[in-house]
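On clarity, I found the account of how folds are encoded harder to follow than it need be. What matters is that the chain and its backbone geometry are given together, residue for residue. The format is easy to grasp once an entry is in front of the reader. For illustration, here is how one protein appears when written out as sequence plus structure tokens.
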Amino acid sequence: MKEKNNSDYLLEISSTENILNIEGLKEFPFKTALSFKYLIEFWDKEAKNENKLKASYAQSLINEVSKYPELKEPITDASLIEKHRDLIDLLLTVVYPPAQWEKTISASYFPFQFRYFYVTPKYREVFYTEGSLGEISFNTSVDTMLYGKTLNAYMEIFYRHYNEKLKAQSPVVAKILDKRTGLFKYFRIIIDTSFVRSVAVEEIPVISDEDRKKLLNDPLNLNLWMKLIPPNKFEFHGFVTFTAVSINDSEILSLLKNDLLEKEVIFSPERFQSIEEKLRSLFNIPQLKLGLAAVPKDWSLLAECGRKIGSSFILNDSCTTECCSIKNSIYDRAKLEGKPLIVEDVEKYEMKTEVESKILEQGIRNILIAPLYYQNEPIGVLELGSPNPGDITPLNSIKVKEVLSLFAIAVKRSMEEFENNVQKIIKENCTAIHPTVEWRFRRAAVNLLLKKDNERLPEMEPIVFDNVYPLYALTDIRDSSENRNRAIQSDLVEHLNYAKEILSAAHSFKPLPLFNEMNFRISKYNKKIKLSLNSADEINITEFLQNEVEPILRHVKEYDPSLKEMIKDYHKALDPNLRVFYSKRSDYEKSVNMINETISNYLDEAEIESQKMFPHYFEKYKTDGIEHNIYIGASIVEDRKFDQLYLRNLRLWQFMVVCGIAGKSEELKKKMKIPLETSHLILVQNNPLSIRFRFDEKKFDVDGTYNLRYEIMKKRIDKALIKGTKERLTQPGKIAIIFSQPKEANEYKRYIEYLEGNGYLDGKAEELDVEDLQGVYGLKALRVKVNFSTKPIEKIKREEISKTVEQFANLVN
């Protein structure tokens, strides 16, 4: 039976998504009225049909309608519909063929008012539950619907009254929750406006050719439409019919494809659940479960090393703790067959392993396992499970085959994105990480990402390496502060004297007292900086030259061409950026940079070879010279066994590298404008310590109060004196080896003897006591001279260092 309901119900709009809602458009701007006039006109035409049967039937309807002229007028009284229900049924057979009445999902509405007056039983069944409108959403917003509805109204006016045909329509998809199953169903809404017309109620606005062209060129500009054709000029009479066509499978597959092409979608719990819900609707199985896992290169290690994505049956907590292997399981079988495997009832599966037992414990009786491949390589596994045997069948599993490749791509992209997030966490928290210890930071970053699923504000776990042996060496530029001060002093004196010379010349052309006063101040500055120089002096003199001398020079250059030339030469001598004389300072900085870059590059090259002996942590710092730290031990590496042999090898390697650095530094003196001396030291400590990564400072530091002594020594030993003297322990051309235990000295004495015999060192070692430092007492040292004559530095290559260390391995044992 046809039903009448005046409930407002928003279900329609044909529109485009690139529209802009105009300001103030809150409701449909045209007046509307329900009318059967255009439906009756259709039957009038049919009465003249050449087919006599059709014409006779149509004429009989027209004859009946003629008895009720009120049906030809706009209907303002809804009771008329019920009063003439039987006749309206017959008139609407052109819209609702009797054979399709029980099958079609359709309803007819007041034009643009969304109040239906005629509805099929199937429509009510789908869209209404227990008498009320079900949970429905659309693929367009309410604002977009209103915009599109208004735009289509204008295009109907343009067609009927201005003979221009335009159309703006995009598919409307309704998503409806079936309360009986809890699953979503998807329908495409087809809107039939055959029996709606625009009616002019005032004089039709005249549109110029220019305005017509504007509308044709910019048809989505609703502001323009409303300006040229005010809504009060027209009304809409008639009715529209909505028909819902099920597109469940195609729409869900399309939505799944869109989801799976997004980054990180399967790592988001909410998005993963959304995909699971779509698959439930696709299979029409309300209790369907989705599992997804990335597989390791060795698929047999899936239970141990696979990576759960969102949720996984095989990587469920009970499986990972109790299932040691997937061998002979349904997962192994799926891998061997290389295609989706369906088990109708796991409980009745004859070849059960521990894996199948754990699957059953999760409430899964019916399961589909589909291997995922990316570029012919296994990358993951898709799992679908149901508590009901036989829910997933070979027939309905065909649906999921369409998206298997997309699941594979999603797993690939998500794992890449996961790796990017791991690296991002490492970089944000730790800056650049030495490759040897990157494994530990990666593990901490992965754990942090996993914590984010369970903790609100997770913190990165501490990164500590226990029982590691430190090696430290320093190449220091000798008297760097004094050399820098001399360079600054020299530049300032030259700058002041040049300015004084120009002011004196200016005085000869125009003897102003100010020139004498300025020269007096310049002489005063010169005397002061020749005695001593501090940072305040440098700032004061620079400000004096730039703020007081410069303005005078800009004025006096007009006194005479010769003076103008002097000032031009003066400006040429200034550093273009700093606007001061910077010659000696530039020479000094170039010399320092030459030493630092040469040593740094030499260390980098040598360190590549040293990593081949045994992986270790290495870091270097540039100051006035280069210092480097090394830490070696079992905890530094992930999967290798440590032995004291590697520590001794690395100490010998470091000793030889420092010899090479000393030789390189000596050679550089010939190339420097300011020859700088360098001194070298090695600090030895036999006792292992712990190092902790400081996330605030983004660097490693020793861990624990006891180990702080080592850090204190590193900071103070470069200025240490020989006990009872004023002589610095570190001297140019020599290497000081500082230690605190006799065992350490004996080890290095063997190295010294060996390296002296091979031409690296010159003469026997001095054995020295070190003057007590603040907080550090009882240090001793060996000091040796580097041989620059019989062992040219160009022969101390990293290859030779590696070879020598290898030969020395038996000796140090």
In short: The CA atoms of residues 485 and 533 lie 7 Å apart.
